[in-house]
Design brief:
mainly alpha, elongated, 24 helices, 0% strand, single chain, 526 residues
């Protein structure tokens, strides 16, 4: 390493030490090391997706609203995520205890009787029980499942695990949000009477489904749920287009008007007004929000920006530390073995076989083990009449070393990213990145293999320059590791303040999404 390189390295190391003392900077620089604590925080959240039988946890009568909400969320997840599971009478009784407590604490929330009706439907309870719950829910004033609060709580837990609130944490918490209660309630659409059934009771059931779904749509905090609820209301109102006729816009509008007027005439004025509101608001929903494809594109763009901003300083910093370690290994090789111009070929072959076997067993990739054996063996090629040990790197040597340095630093950063916590978000929301994250061990192997290409290159250079192969190899590793370390540390020092500022702006946008997507993506005022 030249004097100029040592000066730059010392300057950047001073900058890193300064940043590590500052709390926000430390969280960004050490981000890739936080995956175990992040996974621990996720496993403790109810949003992680429990499985197994429904069990009673604690005394519902003594629980506060937050505890009851978490328990009902867990129950809805267990039921919805296993459509083939049978909900027993005992399961229904356990769920009912929590739902009773929740309704006692939130008397105006339609969520509690709606979820009771949905679980009763899955438990094959009587139609009378299901419809009586939907009648009670229709008289409530609002709908709130509490899943948003759990999403915010998960974000807070992830922030505690990393020592700072970051945008990627909020996006991951949003990806893990549990809309299972809403999906479970929307299954009640299957109970809608056929269009051919024109009895008063059939019209009353249609009204109950439409109005309950309208309450759910207005209270849901995610775009997907509001879309599903609005679509269910419109399917119900559009189902009276004459069978076999062309479903023109005029025919659909006539069907909707007929649906509302029929409820008004057959059931009552209040029910008719409510049905009209449900249909009009469901139609207006498509005009009040950004198109779904634009929402998805916006999500992907912000997610990608958040991943880059939150992970880039850390992968560069930790990668540069690994490169410093690599340079130290090169220094040891050149100092300990650089004076050996004629290594014992038999010893090098034996060493190659042993280390190749070890690497093959540990990595599970025997081709990698064979390559390591070849690399160690080739370094044992003797040479004749070595010149003094000073290495003169020509332009071609520097180009080759520069290319290998860039590849090694890039692959190391990709490997660290795949092993870091931000990869959890990328694998869930960015399909074009997910394949890179499926086998992070392969990225690590690729990095090691790239570094070992210095061995055959060093042997060739040593023969041409008539130097010791091991010294040339050690000096080449020093040059690659030292250069990569300087670049990585320098980039992390320069980028960290920028990424902290950028991430704070991204976090504000993500916070709106997490708390209420229907406000964040609304294009028309309420």
């Amino acid at each position: 390493m030249s004097g100029r390189q040592r000066l730059l390295l010392g300057f950047f190391i001073g900058g890193v030490i300064t940043l590590l003392v500052i709390g926000p900077s430390r969280s960004f620089l050490l981000h890739v090391l936080h995956r175990p604590s992040v996974e621990s925080a996720i496993s403790k959240s109810v949003l992680s997706g429990p499985s197994g039988p429904i069990i009673e946890s604690g005394n519902p009568a003594q629980m506060d609203l937050g505890e009851v909400t978490r328990q009902t969320l867990v129950i809805a997840q267990r039921i919805y995520r296993d459509p083939s599971a049978t909900v027993s009478t005992r399961d229904f009784e356990i769920a009912n205890e929590y739902l009773n407590r929740g309704e006692a604490l939130e008397g105006d929330n339609a969520y509690w009787p709606q979820l009771r009706a949905a679980i009763a439907y899955r438990a094959n309870k009587s139609d009378e029980l299901i419809w009586s719950e939907l009648r009670r829910a229709a008289e409530k004033r609002y709908w709130n499942s509490g899943s948003m609060q759990e999403t915010v709580a998960l974000w807070s837990s992830l922030a505690a695990s990393e020592g700072r609130r970051m945008s990627w944490q909020g996006l991951l918490a949003r990806e893990m949000r549990a809309d299972d209660p809403a999906y479970l309630i929307l299954e009640i659409e299957r109970l809608a009477p056929r269009p051919s059934d024109t009895s008063d009771e059939a019209w009353r059931k249609r009204y109950l489904i439409a109005w309950n779904f309208s309450i759910l749509r207005d209270g849901a905090r995610t775009v997907e749920v509001t879309d599903l609820a609005a679509s269910a209301v419109l399917r119900l109102s559009d189902s009276f287009v004459t069978p076999g006729s062309e479903r023109t816009l005029a025919a659909i509008e006539q069907s909707r008007a007929s649906f509302v007027s029929s409820v008004f005439e057959r059931i009552g004025e209040l029910e008719g007004d409510r049905t009209g509101i449900a249909v009009r608001n469901s139609v207006a929903r498509a005009l009040s929000f950004m198109p779904s494809n634009e929402i998805f594109e916006l999500r992907d763009m912000l997610t990608l920006r958040s991943i880059v901003v939150c992970s880039l300083p850390s992968v560069l910093f930790v990668g540069s530390l690994l490169m410093l370690g690599l340079a130290f290994i090169g220094w040891l090789i050149s100092q300990l073995f650089g004076d050996i111009p004629h290594p014992d070929v038999r010893f090098m072959v034996l060493l190659g076989i042993v280390f190749g076997a070890i690497c093959g067993v540990l990595s599970g990739a025997w081709l990698f083990g064979i390559w390591i054996a070849f690399v160690i063996t080739i370094l044992g090629i003797p040479m004749e009449s070595p010149l003094p040990d000073r290495i003169d790197w020509n332009r071609l040597n520097r180009v080759v070393l520069g290319v290998l340095t860039a590849i090694v630093l890039l692959s190391t950063c990709l490997w660290l990213f795949a092993e870091g916590p931000t990869a959890l978000l990328a694998s869930q929301s960015l399909l074009f990145i997910s394949p890179l994250l499926e086998r992070p061990d392969l990225l690590g192997l690729f990095t090691v293999v790239t570094i070992t290409f210095l061995a055959p290159a060093s042997v060739l250079w040593a023969q041409i320059k008539r130097r010791s192969p091991l010294r040339v190899f050690g000096e080449a590793i020093i040059r690659v590791g030292g250069t990569a370390a300087i670049v990585g540390i320098g980039a992390s020092v320069l980028l960290t303040p920028i990424t902290i500022y950028t991430d704070s702006k991204l976090s504000n946008a993500v916070d709106r999404w997490v708390r209420n997507e229907t406000d964040a993506f609304r294009i028309a005022p309420r």
